[in-house]
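#onboarding

Welcome to the new folks! Below is a worked example of what a typical request in this channel looks like: someone posts a single protein sequence, and someone else replies with the predicted structure as tokens. Don't worry about understanding the tokens yet, we'll cover that in week two.

Example request:
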Amino acid sequence: MEPITEVQSGKLMGKLNKTSNNFEFYTFKGIPYAKPPVKNLRFAPPEPPLPWEGVKDATLDCNICAQFDKATSTVIGAEDCLYLNVYTPSLPSSSSSQLPVMVFFHGGGFLFGNGTDDSAHGPDYLIEKNVVIVSLNYRVGILGFLCLDCKEAPGNMGLKDQVMALKWVQQNIKSFNGDPDNVTIFGFSAGAASVEYLMLSPMAKGLFHKAIANSGSSLLPWAKCERTRELARKIPALQQISVLTDEELLKYLKDMPIQELIAMSMAVIAASIWKGGIHFGFVPTIEKPKDWEPFLSKPTYKLLSDGEFTKVPFMSGFCTREGLLMLPLAAPLFGKVVNEKSFAPYLPFEVDRKDEIDAELKGVYLKEDKEYGDDDSYAVDFYTDVDFLAGIHIALSMIAKSNSPVFFYEFAYDGNLNYIKKKMQINRKGACHGDDGGYLIKSEILKGKLSENDIMVRERMCLMWTNFAKYGNPTPELNNVISTKWEPVEENKIKYLLINDKLTMKINPYEDRMKIFTDLYREYYKL
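Example response:
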């Protein structure tokens, strides 16, 4: 007998699954959490889902959101994509108690990716720790982040989709034996930046109770853009069409066939000039609200420094060699830093005193020891900081000033589940951006034989992440799996857990590098 449950919009039929350890759980896939954002709703904020009659088959894969697929150079997915999956160890019964809920936001630079393909985002590892997992799609690229400063295209539609999904969780998760009063949001990369954005948005307040950001922050140069209108205006220009007003531009973009819209948006991103490392163009922005409720209307640096965010237990971290991501994504730019051994020209923002700052940067990067034996370690470290660590560290420091507990980690383990290195075939030592994901989320591309250390690291991480979701503390007790207490950050002391084949508490990661960037960010934001 297939499992059936009822949500506000109607009844759902799911199926019973098993992990490789024979742990049984229920899967409900392709559940609509918003009305399809098609036709006149293209670029509009999400609207509540429509009800259905009878029992909906929730065993089938749904559409992913329309996007460009680099592997095939084609547009894949569809605009009708606002669906989520729920995985639960148990359904409500007189003998069951509600379980903690973990809501997963996928990465992909706000331009790529999905949350509903469970061959890439399997719940198997985490669900064995008795939590309910929710994973969702949100609009990406121009469909999710076009901003024309009007109600019909206000910007941040993809983040508003996430808020709509969290509202759905509040209204419906009891039907899957989830506890609506114990919801943890988590994600990697753009999913982690989303987590921080949700903490900063008044729109999401009260919809979650804990937050985990793996390698992402709203402060990162690739996670924000004030030029989406300028980018969008280049689309008709590429086709030699004159569009004078925003109203004309909106109509033009709404009327474009989806394949053409996505392909042209990718062309204008590729042709644009930017500062820093990786770049995705159509991403979150600061709205200028008139007659609509904004997701975000102030700079995130200011919100963080003023303590204007939802105060919940927070966990954040990074991978030691995040900058290896530049090799598949932006090799020519990476090569310039390698060859020139100069850093200031490649910072993500304009700086005064360029020569003086370049001398400071050379002082830290060119003197770093070559732990990994690479001749280009200094470039890996520089882009680790530019694209990830600097913003993550600065945001964490500001969050810790007015919020507790806050936990920080560095992931340094190099094993057979290092996700991005395997996916992008980066044949280098160390933990690349996104490599920690393979130890929390099951992916079919990670099929190799696992060592004892791989299994232990995975077990530790799944235990710590789900402990945090349950109790707000990743190490409530020590045992033979976790023998080190993960201590929280203190206001002037960044304590952090180094996750390798062993667990070690340390203080103030990469202090010289972080001091330079803290000063640069402060100068850039003039606060």
